[in-house]
Request: fold
Amino acid sequence: MSTLRNKVQLIGNLGTQPEIITLESGKILAKFTMATNENYKNSNNEKITETQWHNIVAWGNTAQIIEQYVNKGEEIVVEGKLTSRSYDDKDGNKRYVTEVVANEILMLGKKG
Reply:
């Protein structure tokens, strides 16, 4: 059990064009949303597709690869860890965000 850790693997399609941010420190950040689909049949034997949306962030070399090669709609594999954080919005309300911090990606191809 000592080898268990925080690890996430997703296969899905980019819902947005990656946003690339270069920080003052020179670090590069890529942010995008990713959709994963689960298919099943309901009690009437109708096919149902449920879509889950995930917030993905990547840093450094992974962000550079995303900037150069990954576009909205494409299917990719993301491996990383699940993180949660909070911040105060402009109105002083506390907001909570859960993201996948990607440390590795694999491009599978274009949608359709």
Summary: The first strand starts at residue 8 and ends at 14.
